Amino acid sequence: MHDATASTLVRRWHGLFTVSRDYWALTAVLAAALLALPIVSVTWIALSSTDSIWPHLVSTVLPRALANTLLLLVGASVLALAIGTGTAWLITMFRFPGREIADRMLVLPLAMPVYIVAYAYVELLDYAGPLQTMLRTNFGADSFMGTMVPDVRSLGGAIWLFALVLYPYVYLSARASFVQQSVCALEVARTLGRTAGGTFWSVALPMARPALAAGVTLVMMECLNDLGAVQYLGVETLSASIYATWTQRSNLPGAAQLSLVLLVLVMALLMGERAARGDAAFHHTTGRYRAIPFETLSGGQAMAALVAVAAPVVLGFIVPFAVLALHAVRHLRAYDAMEFLIAARNSLALSALASFAAVIMALLFAYAARLHKSPATRLAARLSSFGYALPGTVLAIGLLAPLAAFDNGLDAWMRATFSVSTGLLLSGSLFAVTCALVIRFLAVAISNVEAGLERISPNIDAAAKTLGTRSTSALRRIHLPMLKPAIGAAALLVFVDAMKELPATLLLRPFNFDTLATQIYGLTAAEQFEAASVGAVAIVLIGLIPVLLLHRAVSEGRAGGSGR
Questions:
Q1: CATH number of the structural domain spanning residue 71
Q2: I need a surface site. Which of 126, 137, 365, 525 has the fewest CB within 10 A?
């Protein structure tokens, strides 16, 4: 009996970790192990430190940083959930003047990094800003109107700004779910006496729960990753504390221990998202789809609906972009064009390099999973997608330590063997930044490439194999030409995300290497918002491209409609 049990365990272990002789699966597993290196590195640094840092962190930094982080997560996600779900339901189910324009514009805040929006609102609402200056001039310094201006440099201000920028994650998820819901379920609820509001709460919302959970989780992940906005607004979160502990206090073990707390929080969020979705799955019992009929609004109802869907766009995109554009136009003549061009060149080169590497890695994982549906390849795919949940500060610590150890070991060996110093080859180089960006956004590329592969019939693979075509040749001659749209979408999304990424780039970039994001960060830290506005406008305009394409893909997926 014991021998049989042992034999079964050995077979399961062998099936999980012994990969097929095909090099695709083997390479995917090895690559996934390398991608997991930052997590292993952070855990090792945090737990192997001999200094007694934990008591100091627990008594000083950790309580305040953890409390602020949790409050930011809860507040921003609740507001984003309310804004995104409400606007998605109005756009999907009702027809009113301005609806088509609002549908396109509701996704625009996603093109603006949170730190840029924070800079714009501080410039607009601060004591020395134009709004308070105008109120003091017209109504006096101690007027009631002056006290009505919100203090954006606060935890409450951060919650509102994060919600106004990140609600499109929930909006897109909810919109995609609502447009795919069958009219039959909604009509049955109305037949049973449910009002439009009752139908929303009892039928549409429960059916959209998995999509809403995914959208809210993305909002929380972006809150955890942010560094520039919380620093500028004076909110001490875990990400800001990690950065300060590492760069200002030169305490790498302490930063790693705070990173470990952040990793635990990330894992809790992922588990919470899975629990929120549960086993919920809703299927249509008929192959026939009818479009969900619009309910036409008029008069006061139409005006209220228009205000409801326009307010997030105005506050989350139009106002901050107008502030940026105005300052950019005013400062254009005095702007140092050469510094901007150098930063733009660095951003474009780094983003292009990261998107190219991410697409190659995505092809590796997706194609290996297509060829070998084994536990090992499934585990490799999961590990490769986990990087999107890792904040940039954690990635930076997790990468810099092993890269520095490699550089120091190689330099010591070269000195001892050849009396030649190699210096730092990998740490503090473009290689380190590119690795961080690829790990961070690989999940975006994989999702697009996998979606493209799923549209290719397995019969094509079988036919190629029958004709004696090897897997590599089949990928080059058959799959790649058919995957061009998916590869292009993956490269574009990773490119734009890499353009906006701040924490990992800020911590790992080479000396005197500025991207648009780090240039904006440095200028705003020096209170030179006008000089930073030109680069900020450039990032926003580039970010609009994938956002509009993503909206088009979602809006054309209406059940029963002509779109796919």
A1: 1.10.3720.10
A2: 137
What pLDDT band is residue 491 in, cutting at 50, 70 and 90? confident
CA atoms within 13 A on the CB side of 238: 31
Shortest CA distance to 107 belongs to which of 39, 175, 28, 46? 175
Instruction: With CA atoms as reference, report the closest residue to 474 among 377, 381, 363.
Output: 363
Decide: helix, strand or coil at residue 544: helix
Residue indicated by tokens 């009892």: 202
Of the spans 63-77, 90-104, 457-471, 505-519, which averages the highest pLDDT?
63-77
* Structural domain containing residue 482: 22-52+335-525
- Residue among 167, 276, 264 at smallest CA distance from 214: 276
Nearest CA-CA partner of 177 in 205, 196, 197, 198: 205
Write the burial class of residue 478 (CB in 10 Å: 0-12 exposed, 13-18 middle, 19+ buried). Answer: middle
536 belongs to a structural domain: no
Number of structural domains (the chain) is 2
Q: Tell me the pLDDT of the chain averaged across its residues.
A: 81
Residues in contact with 104: Cβ distance below 8 Å, sequence separation at least 6, in sequence order = 548, 551
Task: Note the pLDDT tens digit of each residue in 366-394.
Answer: 888 787 777 777 777 777 777 787 888 89
